[in-house]
Amino acid sequence: MLANKFWQTLSRYSLCCVAFCICLIFSFKSLANTQLQSRWQQVESSGKDQSVYFYAWGGDAQINAYIQWAAEQVKAKYNIELVHIKLSDTSEAVSRVLAEKSANNHTQGSVDLIWINGANFAAMSKHGLLLKDWADKLPNFIYTNPENNPSVLFDFGLPTQGMEAPWGQASLTFYYDTLATSSPPQTLNKLLSWSKANPGRFSYPKPPDFLGMSFLKYALVVLHQHSDAMLQAKLNQPANDKNTAQVLDPLWTFLNKLHPNLWRNGEYFMQSGIQMRRLIDDTELSIGFTFSAPEVPAAVKRYDLPKSIRSYAMADGSLSNTHFVAIPYNASHQQSAQLVADFLLSPAAQAHKQKTAIWGDKTVLIQTSLSAEQQGLFKTVQPHPSALPLNSVKRTLSEPHPSWVEAINTGWETRYGASQ
Amino acid sequence: MSKVLHSADLFSRLVKVTPYCLLALLTIPVLGGLMGVMLPAFGWAPALNKTNMSLAGFNVLWDTPGLSQMIGLSIRTGLISTLIAFALMIIMLAAFFNSVWLKRIEYVLSPILVIPHAAAAIAVSFLIAPSGLFTRLFSPWLTGWQLAPEGSLPYDAFGWSIIIGLVLKELPFLLLIALGILAQPELGKKLRMQHQIAINLGYYPMVAFFKVVLPNLYPLLRLPIFAVLAYASASVEMTLILGPNTPPTLAVAIMHWFNDVDLTLRIKASAGALLQLAITVGLLLIWLLLEKISAMIFSQSLINGRRHYAHQLVRAFTYIVTCVILVFIAAALIGLVFWSVAGYWRFPDTLPSSLVLLHFENAFTHIYTPLFNTLVVGVVSSGFATILVLLCLEAEQITAKPLAKWALLIIYLPLLVPSIAFLFGIVWLQQLLNSQHAFFNVIFVHLLFVLPYVFLSIADSYRRLDPRLARVAASLGSSPWKVFIQVKLPQLFAPILIAMALGLAISFGQYLSTQLAGGGRIATITTEAVTLANGASRRTSAVYAILQMGLPLLGFILAWGLPRYVFNNKQA
To answer: Quick check: keyword Phosphoprotein in the entry (chain B) (predicted)?
Structure first.
């Protein structure tokens, strides 16, 4: 009897306890949510009606037009004046922030928002030039489904720590002139035999150019596809004196075979992907590649490439990565820049960007986390004949650890940087 | 009367201060800029957490693969291109001195002066590349080539492509400066008369030029030549587009190090910038040495009385060379125009398959702000530079003391220091002052580059003014201000306009300085053009090159047209 009563009381208490705990959890969660919400409300209220100086590569008319469109949108939405500062090299903006830091300008920086890639991100975060812990708090960030989509939390293998918001995705895409070659090589090995048969019709931009480095990383990853797991794992670890030779030797062996058959016998290397595109238009080269697949049909429409161009993805894999926007630690308009970054992540902005006629840059949003109405925005139209056919990327290759960039660069410079 | 006296005093006092203003204006940023390079070169870069002074940067620099090749390439291309441009300018002047052809050649060459280096390099590379216009003319009907053949130009290891590009850009500049000097009423008249006398004495015209005109002309040309030599040895735009890159020239390598994402490379870049400075100074000394040697060799032949030296041969050679240059330039310009309206233009087609206005339409949708910025910055900086230089030169005459040698050197410093390193230092300085006025910063930095050219262009005309006129005016009771405005400036009408036009052209052509000093916020035609040239097509670059040529060309047309119009009216 007593025991019965005891158990009854205990279960009632425990029920109360559980209910209380549940309440507590919910209230904490809602507290956290309201905190996030109030944080964002604060960002919204203080970020409005200002200017945002967006430092972004300005070499592509289509991308410039997209940024112009985004500027009109944030003007209407937040009365923000988005000024596109067109760079020919992103490191110009890095220099600027660095110069400001060395001059003790810690609050009045001229760069508010910067379009960044893995190498620049690694350099800027290493020197503490970026604002932290804001990107993962953007309201639209949940659409990227970060729990199941690590590519938005890591840039070239480095954790972003909320320092940059994802903007788009790209993968290495090849294109060729059908009048010059009818069967382009589909793998790295076939590329070697193809260039032996067609000497002088292929080359790659000189590292440290981003695209040239991407080609070398693609080759490195592919060359290790059949290596043992231990060696493969080293690609994801920092390069050091011990593992550098072991990991990079296959690359040098491959390049030693490839270089004599390159354009200009490998004694001169192009400066950039754009120079490569010009040389394909001039028919000096027959095969090229780009990290921005929609650039190819856009160039054909602008007459910058002949109509005989077709795009394809390599069968042994396409190097893929995500590109981001970041806010320097000393930006003058940090709140406004966050509003812009959030807008760039919105389904409407991402869908507009993905249209091939606009930019064709692949969205970073995950379709399943979007509502049906939002998914409808992403419907596609018939692509241009020279564009990369849909779903042609069969295998994506992830970027090796960023420290390999320097290791490859140094090794390349000593081996091929000073010919004769 | 007292009022006049008062204003006269004020003017004289104002004028006497200006040289100090000019020197301060140039010294502070240049020294600051140099400091901004020196400190990191010796290892002091607080932003990179490096505060130990050391020679580590130089050690890294010496270990760079191919450093000696880079230095060799810089020296070779700088010296050879300047020598060729100088020699061509002299023989062209000699062959066409006192002939209407000189003016015509000048008209053809002057547009080249205002094409930005990057665009000119693209135009040249299209001519000499294996897929270029010259090959297309003969393909496939003669050569059978359906695809572009393999070739070695541009990007050749010796640097011939760079030399071709630089000569085509420097020749018009030198010629224009020389003609500016010869356009001075007194000096020009004197030299032309002496030339005529020599011809009457039986000297062949070209020989007369070398023996009578050149010795008087050369001292006035020395500084412009130095500017050209310094530029050629440290330029980036042309060598980047036309030169080899395994390895490139030192200046291009430095630029890559400065732009590298590995920020510690800036230490090496700064050390490299000091090395570049040493190379440039070394080249100037070599030139001086060459000057001395040739003076020794030729001083005897000036007075040996020989009337001709195989002049037929020399004349024929000059005509051929002139024709080749004109054809080259004409082809480059025609190429530019075609590219700006070209539809598909696949090798081996000699002409584009269709002509479209799309590239112009695209350019014009975004042109207004850059155009406005370009004009404001150009007009303000070259106008201010001209006024400052004129007042300085007037101060020289009022105090009867020429500017000291070291002062002259300061005026030329911005042209002698490799601009990328020196600009990085200036940006650092502007940051220290926390100056947020982008327009002011840009105009200020443009002034550094515009001032020397304006000074180069006017100084000698001003110093060669016949002092008797001013003395007569003063003795008739005119105040210094009146003498300056009503006697001196009218005589200098043509040189002043040419200097302004040159200043405008220099300002219009600035890329790095606009980009760095303005924090990228001041978009000009040139910054847009270079950004697009790095990214977009040869077609878009051609459109911008044509736009860039149009603006300063207007300036030069005014500069040549106005004096004629004014003088014709006076005669009427």
So the answer is: no
